[in-house]
UniProtKB/TrEMBL annotation:
<keyword id="KW-0560">Oxidoreductase</keyword>
<dbReference type="InterPro" id="IPR020904">
    <property type="entry name" value="Sc_DH/Rdtase_CS"/>
</dbReference>
<dbReference type="Pfam" id="PF13561">
    <property type="entry name" value="adh_short_C2"/>
</dbReference>
<comment type="similarity">
    <text>Belongs to the short-chain dehydrogenases/reductases (SDR) family.</text>
</comment>
<dbReference type="InterPro" id="IPR036291">
    <property type="entry name" value="NAD(P)-bd_dom_sf"/>
</dbReference>
<dbReference type="InterPro" id="IPR057326">
    <property type="entry name" value="KR_dom"/>
</dbReference>
<keyword id="KW-0520">NAD</keyword>
<feature type="domain" description="Ketoreductase">
    <location>
        <begin position="7"/>
        <end position="183"/>
    </location>
</feature>
<dbReference type="InterPro" id="IPR002347">
    <property type="entry name" value="SDR_fam"/>
</dbReference>
<protein>
    <submittedName>
        <fullName>SDR family oxidoreductase</fullName>
    </submittedName>
</protein>
Length: 252
């Protein structure tokens, strides 16, 4: 497939997990890609085996507006336009209303929420020109509450509603905006958690498909939402969760 031939895509958090899989997916479908991350080694890993005339990397901290603006400009300078931004970089945040530190709260909001907003804002004029689109990475944790993850829940809820609210205005400019909302995906973010076998068995019970996702399964949906195949999908937060959101949570 070459749905993205001649198109330019930015992926944040492109040095690991879902973002790395998205870079490879978009590049595999013909796109020019700028992979952004704060992790230089991760970006080098992403780049390996890819055509460096079409895939470039950039060290970016998405919680810094100037970094994000520089990232967008770099993609436009190198490839001439911007068609897609996948605002995907994110971090976790553990704790309850009592145990979460406010420093951790501010950090998760700065990366997961401000970072997405900066990406949408900087990319928007270019996407308006190209009639391009935005795909944000939300989470199933933005659609309801989890135990012991309050800051993360708040941040991903904001990403989900930023996606819907932005779509309300951007449709008239021809800029589509959507998000994916994954449940457990086997990436760097979950590596530590996955050592807890009992917890993993609980996940397998809760998810009707009985397993977590591989990053490539999320990247494929991101590519669908970014493609012309989704030309009338707008303002949607798409659960990619093996059926989790469809379940009432009642025991078997
Ligand atoms: P990951 O840790 O493998 O990848 C996240 C990447 O984001 C890393 O390369 C990291 O360096 C980068 N990053 C973090 N902060 C950054 C910053 N300030 N600036 C630039 N880059 C930064 O995790 P992942 O699972 O691939 O996470 C990708 C997205 O998916 C995140 O938004 C995460 O919240 C979301 N998500 C993950 C899961 C899961 O179970 N893994 C589930 C739902 C949603």
């Amino acid at each position: 497939m070459s749905r993205f031939s001649g198109k330019t895509v930015i992926v944040t958090g492109g040095g690991s997990g879902i973002g790395q899989a998205a870079v490879r997916r978009f590049a595999g479908e013909g796109a020019n890609v700028l992979a952004a991350d704060r992790d230089e080694d991760g970006l080098a890993e992403t780049l390996s085996g890819l055509d460096t005339s079409r895939v470039i990397t950039r060290i970016v901290d998405v919680s810094r507006q100037d970094d994000v603006e520089g990232m967008v400009q770099a993609a436009v300078d190198r490839f001439g336009a911007l068609d897609v931004i996948h605002n995907n970089a994110g971090v976790g945040c553990d704790g309850t209303v009592q145990t979460m530190t406010l420093d951790d709260y501010r950090k998760v909001m700065a990366i997961n929420v401000d970072g997405v907003l900066y990406g949408c804002r900087a990319a928007y004029p270019h996407l308006k020109k190209s009639r391009g689109c935005i795909v944000n990475t939300a989470s199933i944790s933005g659609l309801g509450g989890d135990s012991q993850m309050l800051g993360y829940n708040i941040s991903k809820g904001a990403v989900a509603n930023l996606t819907r609210a932005l779509a309300r205005d951007s449709g008239k400019d021809g800029v589509r905006v959507n998000a994916v909302a994954p449940t457990l995906v086997h990436t760097g973010m979950t590596a530590e958690m996955e050592d807890d076998k009992a917890l993993m068995q609980e996940f397998a019970k809760l998810i009707p498909m009985g397993r977590g996702a591989q990053p490539e399964e999320i990247a494929a949906v991101v590519a669908f939402l970014a493609s012309d195949d989704a030309s009338f999908v707008h303002g949607h937060v798409l659960s990619v969760d093996g059926g989790l959101a469809a379940s009432t949570g009642q025991p078997d």
